[in-house]
Specification:
Layout lengths: L30 E2 L4 E2 L6 E4 L7 E6 L5 E6 L4 E2 L6 E6 L7 E7 L3 E2 L3 E3 L5 H13 L6 E2 L8 E2 L6 E3 L23 E2 H22 L15 H15 L10 E3 L16 E4 L9 H18 L4 H20 L22 H15 L2 H10 L17 H10 L5 H24 L15 H18 L3 H14 L72 H4 L3 H14 L4
Length: 573
């Protein structure tokens, strides 16, 4: 999400696969499929991009190599984003649970994959537990499953930055490291924590049985909420006495590539440098998230739910007085800004969540006065800077009281989802990304399109929405131009060198698990991607290199959208 200093590197990986995981058997990178697998009742399609078109494919059992299905490949067609000539192998008729691989005569075999109702449970576990690995202010140990993946308590020294209008020490505890750096940012915590809270609200029966092996596991609160609470607790420390919320807590500059407990820079609470010191976007994001938290935690911890709701109300009161205070880094501050020049969408989201949680006319009236300024879009997914979709959807899904508003939001949300479905079906790799979506965090865009489609499916159940959401998941887990799983430690060929300070100096040969790579980005924003050949297609502007911060960074908002998508696939219990 932000620029980082280039770190020393061993090489420039113009060929990505030189730094990928060891290949299984004779697997061909020309055959691209979801390395986790497929649901039995969902479409199952692999992409073949070979130097010469092939005619047929076989599906074989991984145990014994028996042929279980034969099929014909589609005619080759060009894919503009990757520059590949792609053929599709449709094996949707195969529904028997098991472990398989594809063989394409003249091309080779694929990575192994599974078919089963629970095929994404491991992926969900790793992606959701990655937030525990990102915890700040405490010791972290992933335990015997990942021995050696640990660090001591970190970033315990906090203080007020001069830009906050205050002086002296400030508590520095809890929260998640945001991305490749060790900063904590309210704006990005907003969409990240909100998406995870929505995951609980919408898919509780699916995620509740999954134990995340957290220090809090077994305390009577679902593990997903236990993890979310760690970040909520930090967010609460960022609210000032007047209700406003400071935008971030970071050091003045990025530390070197050291483990978090070795980062000795002071973690400052940063403000705008002038009265009122807090910002409107951060305060509105905070209000929205705390309003959702009040709903989610009420059955498990009423006192905590009441605290969150009181904080949300207080934040809203501040926004009413300060609706448009934006943030720029103060002089001498070089960490991420998450700058947003328009906080109207954050205000709408706060109003919608507070209306849903309280039923108060004040919040409902604000929403109704402003919702028509926002429209669900088929061309750009929600993001940390654009949370208007979340406002509209929570009003609709939460039983909004105004029939005209409900009808309009429903109509526009489904029309936008229809557009995404059509575009996905026409894409060579069957993902929802437009050319403009290949940017910093393009994989997060793919995951957020999946969120959009899954919300549409909740509004109006339609297999087209679910299947297009799964198409984006397949893209992230291996059905892409690189035949690469973009999630660490998942699949037989996952990316291995995320731009992540936590992973660089830990002495382990593999990265911390469950992290989603930012993905292809044609803007050439780091020195490594600038050395890729001119004319490289946007979907291939990616390097699995620690130093490629513009393509291989990780971030909590991208992981949150991945968690939401994976949660929707789990069997309900």
């Amino acid at each position: 999400m932000v620029l980082y200093p280039l770190v020393p590197h061993m090489k420039i990986a113009l060929l990505l696969f030189a730094s990928s995981a060891a290949f299984a058997a004779d697997a061909s990178l020309s055959i691209k499929l979801d390395q986790a697998g497929y649901l039995p009742d969902a479409p199952k399609i692999a992409v073949v991009a070979a130097p010469k078109p092939a005619a047929e494919f076989l599906v074989r059992s991984s145990a014994g190599d028996a042929v279980v299905l034969r099929g014909k490949l589609t005619a080759a067609r060009p894919d503009a984003d990757s520059g590949d000539a792609v053929q599709l192998a449709d094996f949707s008729s195969l529904t028997a649970p098991g472990r398989y691989y594809l063989e394409v005569p003249g091309v080779g075999r694929s990575w192994n994959f599974a078919i089963g109702a629970d095929v994404y449970r491991r992926a969900y576990y790793l992606a959701m537990r990655s937030f525990y690995g990102q915890r700040c202010g405490t010791a972290v140990d992933l335990g015997p499953e990942f021995p050696g993946y640990r660090h001591d308590a970190c970033h315990l020294e906090g203080a007020w930055h001069a830009s906050s209008g205050k002086t002296g020490p400030h508590v520095s505890r809890a929260g998640w490291h945001d991305a490749g750096d060790y900063g904590r940012y309210i704006v990005n915590s907003g969409i990240s924590t909100g998406t995870l809270l929505w995951t609980w609200e919408m898919f509780a029966a699916r995620v509740n049985p999954v134990k995340l092996n957290l220090p809090e596991s077994g305390n009577g609160t679902p593990d997903i909420l236990n993890e979310i609470k760690w970040n909520l607790d930090w967010m609460l420390t960022m609210q000032d006495d007047d209700g406003g919320v400071f935008p971030k807590q970071t050091s003045e500059r990025f530390c070197g590539f050291v483990m978090p407990d070795k980062d000795t820079l002071v973690s400052y609470v940063v403000g705008t440098g002038q009265d009122p010191y807090k910002t409107s976007c951060s305060t509105a994001d905070f209000a929205a998230v705390m309003a959702i938290a009040a709903r989610a935690f009420r059955p498990f911890d009423r006192a905590y739910a009441d605290r969150c709701l009181a904080a949300a109300r207080k934040a809203w009161a501040w926004i009413a007085l300060h609706p448009d205070v934006i943030f720029h880094n103060p002089p001498g501050m070089n960490t991420g800004a998450y700058g947003d020049s328009n906080c109207a969408d954050e205000r709408l989201w706060a109003a919608a969540e507070l209306a849903r949680s309280t039923g108060d006319a004040m919040y409902e009236n604000y929403f109704l006065a402003h919702y028509a300024e926002f429209h669900p879009a088929a061309t750009r997914p929600q993001s940390w800077a654009n949370v208007g979709n979340l406002a509209l959807w929570t009003y609709l899904l939460g039983g909004g009281k105004n029939p005209a508003a409900v009808a309009a939001i429903r109509r526009e949300s489904l029309a936008a989802a229809d557009g995404v479905v059509e575009r996905t079906a026409a894409n060579g790799y069957l993902n929802s990304l437009t050319g403009k979506d290949y940017e910093w965090g393009s994989n997060g865009n793919a995951a957020n399109y999946a969120v959009q489609l899954l919300v549409a499916n909740l509004i109006h159940p339609d297999l087209r929405y679910r299947n297009a959401a799964l198409d984006n998941l397949h893209y992230l887990l291996g059905r892409n131009a690189f035949s690469l799983s973009f999630v660490t430690r998942l699949g037989e060929n996952p990316f291995r060198h995320p731009h992540n300070r936590l992973g660089a100096p830990n002495g382990n040969t593999e990265p911390w698990p469950g992290l989603l790579s930012g993905g292809p980005n044609p803007t050439r924003e780091d020195p490594l991607t600038r050395q890729l050949p001119p004319g490289t297609p946007p979907a291939k502007m990616y390097l699995d290199e620690l130093g490629s911060y513009s393509t291989n960074e990780i971030a909590i908002n991208w992981n949150a959208a991945l968690v939401f998508t994976l949660a929707a696939t789990l069997p309900a219990q």
